[in-house]
Amino acid sequence: MMDGAVAPLLAGVTVVEISRGVAAGYAGRLLSTLGAETVLVEPPDGNPLRREPPFLPPAGEASALFAFLAAGKKSVICDSGTPGGRAGLSALLAAADVLVHDLRADERASLEVDERTLRACHPNLIDVSVLPFGAVGPKADWQAEEINLIHASGEGFLLPNGLAAELFPDRPPLKVYGHFAEYQGGVVAALGALCALIGREHGGGESVDVSVQDAALAVGAFALQRFGDGSLEHRRTRSFKYGGVLECADGHVELLTLEERQWRGLVELMGRPDWMLDPALSDSLERSRRGVEINRAVRAWALGERTADVVARAQALGVPMAKYASPAEVLSGAHERARELFQPVEIAGAGSLPVLSAPFHVDGAALRLRAGPPRLGEHQHLLTAGHQRDHLRVAAEAS
Amino acid sequence: MKPLAGVRIADFTLHAAGPFCTHILSQLGAECIKVESAARPDIFRKPHPVYGRMGPASFDQVAANKLSVRINLKDARGSALARKLVGASDLVCESFRPGVMERLGLGYAALAALKPSVVMVSVSSSGQRGPDSHFAGYAPLFGAWGALGYLTGYEDGPPVEMRHVMDHSVGMNAAMVAVAAVYRLRRTGRGGHVDVSAREVACSLVGEALLFAAAGGSPVRIGNDHPRMAPHGVFRTRDEDRWLTIAVRTDDEWRALVRLMDTPHLLTDPRFQSAASRHEYRRALYGEIEHWTMTCEAGAAERLLQAAGIAAHVSCNMEDIAHDRHLRERGTIVEVEDMTGHKRAALKAPIRFSKSDVGMTRGTPRLGENEDYVFGELLGLSREERQSLMDQQVIY
């Protein structure tokens, strides 16, 4: 990896991951994709996410979620119920910079990864705990899945907004698809690990406590600010006054005009209809007041448009508009292909498939996925003494 | 001590995503110097009527804890002053449309020539390169481009627009990779350019669905359903607009729930005998659960369910969250004083370290509030030089 190319950001960093959930798994995945060696420690029956649907067609053997989260990682089996398993884990930790885990407080001591033992045995190790409600506080031992967490963080209560809220005002609030809150927990846990790695230079190893609820709340911070301003946000009242989700002839687009020139572009895009030329509408406050009326006309117009054509014309006029792209459209998108967002890796039981690398480029290029998800215990040799020495040597050279 | 103490950021970001990144980094210890001008202030200092509000919407949330200076970047002398600021900084963050920093003489190549160790973080809607890199966008567009918006929604309804959480997700990703770049800088002395694409952040939040689609699957909108768990959803309680979320993962949890609801007949109902069957008949099951939750106070039911080991939580509004004891005890929510002296709840950066500190030490800066320190002390400009630049509307 060093031959002429620039070293990845985290070259030489070793991460050990003990996870059962998405948040810790995503933290390990981000660090791995940034160049760290991430070793996933699994129980003898494998990480539970290996058994989480949906499974990749046609064989239906490999979990899509596990394959996405574990791509590029290594796998070792450590049976925490045996002295050998615990010794193996300890050997891995001795050569590691970071431990990312989602173990509850009561599980840590038996694995000898509680804070006191870690500081005593591995004083330079950063340990990052990422739990639904964190490791400290009255809810530290509460149970939660994604749907609970997105509502514990406030965003669930605020969805849907816009068109869906108008169409179905009496339905229950709606979660974001998939694992939104848990992914936020993963990003924050990776951020915490990296800050502690930098802080280690003057303070040695330390423990980092990340809560998925905190992380999801952090990205919803704006609603808390609004509350401080005296306004309690609600899904039925936070829609844009005009624009938003528009149904076209062949799908949906999103339209949002915040600036004056963008409104003028929209007038052009819609062919300068008479009603839009009303001088009163050149005032943004007046437009806000007459949002319902504007939206009625914009929606009627959009129904006659085709998504690809109208988005291209809108962007050329500087009007912020995007198509609600399906997964298949994203996968085949020319822009995504040019940026190598998806890279083919081998997935046992499913073959070679394109997997999302990372949502950023570094040093002018997409980050490389080094491999697909590991088979259970595929890298058991990492537990052998000889490899430990290699490991230490590599780490020393990289620093 | 904060982990990023000693890291200085020249912050050219605007709006929400980029400023949230540098706001978080500042809470982690970086010194963040926000660059604006009276001619082109951050538009989020201004009201946006499309939100139906007359005041600045989100500025405080992302500008707090930063220092503020005025530089008119459209003037060549302003550009030179900005380069001087970069020379005194470790990290440059910006969120203009791709190409703007180059036109201002502040592109990565120019800055790296000036200071090879500079780390630059660019945040944009579609990334610095690629056929759509010139596209304009805001949070709901990122979600739309990235399939997150398409996949979110009721199964018989339209896509749903992502709001500020989308911007801030981009900012959090940017902060994370920025720190990774600072880590390499500290270890090797090497700078670099990080290019964060907001629409790709939206994609990354549905990475598993994109992989499922790549294999030939057809991920679709599924509302509050889960591919495996049932019951799994958001349930009405006895109080208007007060909702309870419940997710049942195992047979043991299912039996515990039935005991709590005191509905033993559900245990013998053939539709609910196995996890797979409960999932198949989840609509009918939903009605059974809601029959019970409609008699409950949401908070009391939440505590009962948790005591039985079942994942449950009230659907919180921001008033609940502002007063939440758990979040207060963790220090996630802190009390701050705003510019008018009023106390209000604010969020600390969401990481607790056993040794390092984190948090805000100052509020939102007035435009140009910290020029004595930045232009005077850091860059060594004399009073006369600064006055002359102000007279020429370079510091403006």
Global morphology of chain B: elongated
Strand content of chain B: 5-15%
What oligomeric state best describes the polypeptide chains here? heterodimer
Question: Which fold name is given in CATH as the topology of the largest domain in chain B?
Answer: Rossmann fold
| Secondary-structure content class of chain B | alpha/beta
What is the assigned CATH homologous superfamily of the largest domain in chain A?
Crotonobetainyl-coa:carnitine coa-transferase, domain 1
Supply the number of helical segments of chain B. 19
Largest sheet of chain A: 6 strands, parallel
Written description of the protein model:
The complex is a heterodimer of chains A (399) and B (396). Chain A has 399 residues and is α/β, with parallel strands linked by helices. Chain A has 2 domains: 274 residues, 3-Layer(aba) Sandwich (Rossmann fold); 83 residues, formyl-coa transferase, domain 3 (2-Layer Sandwich). In chain A, 39% of the residues lie in helices and 15% in strands. In chain A, the strands form 4 sheets. Chain A has a 6-stranded parallel sheet with strand order 3-2-1-4-5-6, with helices on both faces. In chain A, strands 7-8-9 form a 3-stranded antiparallel sheet, with helices on one face. A two-stranded antiparallel sheet of chain A has the order 10-11. In chain A, helix 1 crosses helix 8 and helix 8 crosses helix 9. Chain B has 396 residues and is of the alpha/beta class. Chain B folds into 2 domains: 225 residues, 3-Layer(aba) Sandwich (Rossmann fold), CATH 3.40.50.10540; 89 residues, formyl-coa transferase, domain 3 (2-Layer Sandwich), CATH 3.30.1540.10. Chain B contains 19 helices and 12 strands. In chain B, strands 3-2-1-4-5-6 form a 6-stranded parallel sheet, with helices on both faces. In chain B, strand 1, helix 1 and strand 2 form a beta-alpha-beta unit. The radius of gyration of chain B is 25 Å and the shape is elongated. At the A-B interface, helix 2, helix 6, helix 7, helix 8 and strand 6 of A face helix 6, helix 7, helix 8, strand 6 and helix 9 of B. Strand 12 of chain A pairs antiparallel with strand 6 of chain B, so a sheet runs across the interface.
